[in-house]
Amino acid sequence: MGVAKVWRYSCGVLANTQKQHFFFSCWLWRRPISCTKVCGFMLFALGLISLFTGYVASNLELYSQRLAKGAWFYKQDGDAPIDIWKSRTKPACNVNWENATPDTEKAAAVNVRSSNGYLLIATSGGLNQQRTGITDAVVVARILNATLVVPELDHHSFWKDDSDFFDIFDVKWFISYLAKDVTVVKRVPEKVMRLMGKPPYTMRVPRKSEPEYYVDQVLPVLLKRRVLQLTKFDFRLANDLDEELQKLRCRVNYHALRFTKPIRNFGQKLVVRMRKMARRFVAVHLRFEPDMLAFSGCYYGGGDKERNELAEIRKRWATLPELIPDEERTRGRCPLTPHEVGLMLRALGFKNDTYLYVASGEVYGGEKTLQPLKELFPNFYTKEIVAGDELKPFLPYSSRLAAIDYVVCDESDVFVTNNNGNMAKILAGSRRYMGHKRTIRPNAKRLSALFQARNKMDWDTFSRKVKSCQSGFMGEPEEVRLGRGEFHEYPSSCICKTPFNHSNFIEKYNNHTPSANPSLLDSRYRYIRNSSDLDDKILQKLY
């Protein structure tokens, strides 16, 4: 029976049962309906559906974050926002003494064997790029069972800083701290140099070389020549190593590489002054120098003037490929502008009375570029502002200035960066290692589209979407996963997994001999210990 016949049959039955009332109803339904009315009804229904689904979609991120377990900006036991100044886990499990310190018997065994020769290292790049090179140099010396000569810093890079290792790092501390891992000397003995009769043999290894490469290709040369120099040593060791070598990286980077007393004291002095003005502050590492922008291949709306200036700077790097600025921004490879950094921080919940310490070099565009950030955060400070004329002795040395910024940024309550550079990665790793101190790295890939569309939405929507974008980029403990990113940024092998007992740590520290890798729980002590030039009363105010 067809659909029309069934419908007419049912109407007839109803008419016989209920007489005139149902007969009239069926008569109405049996009247033909025009296509115009049908289409109008369907469009009306579709409109209601679109309106409803649009509302749900616009709020989907908010609801999902509230319902999802462990969402970063809501506590697990309610809807109240978490503290934007601290990570979810209190810094109780910072330095894992057992994980950071080598097995004593294994470490001692290294020094029992005779050295295979002297390893010289010529680093490359700015301060923090050289820092990664020095860290890896120690590990390579361990792999080769070589005696490491204090690394030579780069004097010929873009920064043109003639500072030597001992001008920036505490050489005695470096040598003594690593005594049970690698033998480090200040120079090759004269007797050895005389026997050689010629300059050391030099070679450059490929980037990200595996330990096997050093054993197979570098060790035979070292055994033959006795003195070997590895040049342009930056990122010349693989990221993924076995756990013992990764722990050695941590011991070098977070403990052995201690700045000289003048740098530590001066950096700490700036921290004290910042805390006198505000109980807590945010440090922003702002890489927006002309060379940084030129290298990135990005465009920031400055017209032909900007394009020509940055194109001229790019000529310094002959091997740089041609880049399409819009594609680089879409991929999240462009540093955030100062204005975008300010918008991100305000959207995350930092108020305009927050104190900022901005660590930067020469900002492209000068005051005009910085003005939007200063309007969002009037309490805007730099090392030049905080230190005044006291900074003059450091001004000729870019690496020492960078070291001062490093100290202040590492000590800050919150560290924020607008880029994915070496200092940002190393500081992020250090702050994770020292207890997951709040560290905000922009999710530039998602934020770029959001910034471009910010004028099409109200502030509450923009703020909600920024928080959603930044989930997983706020320095929370769960962001550290084995194998994620570069080890200098995610030092997973060196971060303890169990609750930290402070009394046990103190007992171990008191029973530990100074030459056997002394370590300190909190980053504050790394800079203050042996800093006798600082006034005790000032330090008490800080803590």
Automatic annotation (TrEMBL):
Alphabetical keyword list: Carbohydrate metabolism, Fucose metabolism, Glycosyltransferase, Membrane, Transferase, Transmembrane, Transmembrane helix
A Gene Ontology biological process term? fucose metabolic process
Query: Does this entry carry the keyword Iron-sulfur?
Result: no
The record's annotation in InterPro entries points to: FucosylTrfase_pln, GDP-Fuc_O-FucTrfase
Specify one Pfam family. Answer: O-FucT
Q: Where are the transmembrane segments?
A: 38-57
A molecular function GO annotation: glycosyltransferase activity
> Which family is it part of?
Belongs to the glycosyltransferase GT106 family.
The record ties this protein, via PANTHER family, to: O-FUCOSYLTRANSFERASE 16, O-FUCOSYLTRANSFERASE FAMILY PROTEIN
Output this protein's name: O-fucosyltransferase family protein
- Protein's organism: Solanum verrucosum
